[in-house]
Amino acid sequence: MHDRTRRLLCRTVFLTFCVAPTLFATGWICVVRSPVYVAYQKTSWERTLSDQLGLIVSIDNVDHPVRGVTALEGVELADPETRELVARVRQIEIGQNKDEWVLLASQPVIQGDRVWHFWEVLHDRLLRGHRSSDLRAQLVAGEVTIRRAEGDAASTLTGVRCRLAPTAEGPQATLEFRDVAFEMAEPAQLRVTRNRQVSPPATRWELHTGTTAFPCSMLAEQIEVLASLGDEATFQGTVQAMSTANGWEGEITGRFSQVDLDRVVTNRFDHKLSGTAEIVLQRAAFAGGRLVDAAGDMACEGGVVSWSLLDQAHESLGLVADARVRSVEANSLWRFHQLKFGFSLSREGINIMGHCDSAGQGVVMADENGPLLTDNPQEIVQVVALVRTLASKSVEQVPAAPEAYQLFHVLPIPSTRSEPEVATPRPIHSPLRLRPVPH
Fold first, then answer.
1. Beta strands of 275-332 (E only): which ranges?
2. Are 271 and 262 in contact (CB under 8 A)?
3. Could you give the C-alpha distances from 7 to 10, 15, 18, 21, 229, in angstroms and in order?
4. Angstrom distance (rounded) from CA 439 to CA 242
5. What are residue 303's phi and psi, to 5 degrees?
6. Exposed/middle/buried for residue 83 (C-beta within 10 Å: 0-12, 13-18, 19+)
7. Which of 8, 9, 91, 391 is deepest in the core (most CB within 10 A)?
8. Is 157 helix (H, G, I), strand (E, B) or coil?
9. What is the DSSP letter of 273?
10. H-run or E-run covering 75
11. How buried is 206 (Cβ within 10 angstroms: 0-12 exposed, 13-18 middle, 19+ buried)?
């Protein structure tokens, strides 16, 4: 080959494989780093995420730290109507592992009073949306802060991992987390499944707290009856619930601890019952917004009870009051030493079994001098007896009061005996009704 030809060939190869790629790379870097391109990417990501999430998404900056990974900095999510801030994330790294999107969130902060609204939006877009059938995604955050409305108070969740994946029933979201306020040996798990195999489609919730007791106040906004258990009440166990066209149905099993009986009884009815109780539910099934059946145990180691409640338990609930109780005058208060019993509740009625063994067999409540209330093993009373016991000081009739209406609204409907007629007061919100979610 001629020398001139060799030099020409070498120059061509050098320009093609060295200079040209270098110029292209330099030019590309200049383009992607230019304010115009960065603004275009920022606007594109904001538009895409806003469309996917149904929230107003704003981003401070977009970067590409490594190939195939996009870093969104200063991400804020706001309500599309009120423009109120819902959540803020310092940085989100987005990448793809095979067919699954992976998001790494750094220091996300969620406004506590917007948590439920945040979930409703995600539920509609990610579980009910037409693009959710085959979507696979995983969100990982080392720490999530839920900022409460009052002052600087906040709850912090660690080890947060949320996975969205299709199942045979429909799209399913699984959330695992730990709360720094508790020493959790294992993470709690919340699984939400959109069942598209039923008509109409419905959303099923499953909460497993693991070995840790969670404060009931965490779910008080969604399950309103939990607010009446007291500020210190906790729950450890499993909750399964599905929102249907006829209301909520599902089952609860687990242990409620630190239940404030003043909040449960005294603040809601014309009786006095104070103390801190533990309630163990072997099962509590509900459907159509009311209990179907329940069984469990209740224990309270000391408190105060009014004579009116003891008298109603004797007259209406099938329990046997001690002669000391029946001989005193009305409006008296008793300091009891122990309240402990097992119970079963169904359409067939209510059965109560005393477990204060130190005071004798079948004792439901006792003070330091002996039994106050004893069970009647053969006695199964109708549900209306519980309503009469709690909501009335008279055994003659069931009162036409809001308290009676609330109890009738959530307790099982008797199957064999008719309930006594009761005047219906103005409808009010049931304390046991779950907050509805879209169907």
1. 276-287, 290-300, 303-306, 320-321
2. no
3. 5, 12, 16, 20, 89
4. 10
5. 170, -160
6. exposed
7. 391
8. strand
9. B
10. strand 70-78
11. middle
Please name which of 87, 88, 86, 51 lies closest in space to residue 73, comparing C-alpha atoms. 88
**Of 277, 281, 278, 299, whose CA–CA distance to 356 is shortest?**
299
């009676």: which residue's tokens?
404
What residues pair up with 161 in beta bridges, in sequence order?
140, 176
- Overall residue count recorded for the chain in this entry: 439
Amino acid identity for residue 115 in this structure = V
The residue type of 219 is: L
- Token pair for 352: 């109560």
Question: What type of residue is 14?
Answer: F
pTM of this structure: 0.74
3-state class (DSSP) for residue 257 = strand
CA–CA distance, 110 with 402 (Å, rounded to integer): 37
Instruction: Tell me which amino acid residue 133 is.
Output: S
DSSP E strands: which ranges in 328-425?
333-336, 338-346, 349-354, 363-367, 370-374
Cα 390 to Cα 46, 268, 421: the distances in Å are 56, 9, 17
Q: Which of 358, 355, 310, 359 is nearest to 335 (CA)?
A: 310
Query: Pairing between strand 202-208 and 188-195?
Result: antiparallel
Closest to 177 measured CA to CA, from 144, 226, 220, 221: 144
Question: Omega into 200 within 30° of 0, i.e. cis?
Answer: yes
User: Per the structure block, which two tokens stand in for 91?
Assistant: 């940085």
Three-class DSSP category at 225: helix
Q: Which amino acid is at 164?
A: L
Nearest to 304 by CA among 267, 336, 271: 336
Q: What are the mean pLDDT values of the chain's consecutive 10-residue runs (439 residues total)?
A: 72 72 67 67 90 90 88 93 92 91 93 79 80 82 82 79 91 90 85 88 89 79 75 90 82 94 87 94 87 92 91 87 80 88 88 86 91 84 78 54 53 53 39 46
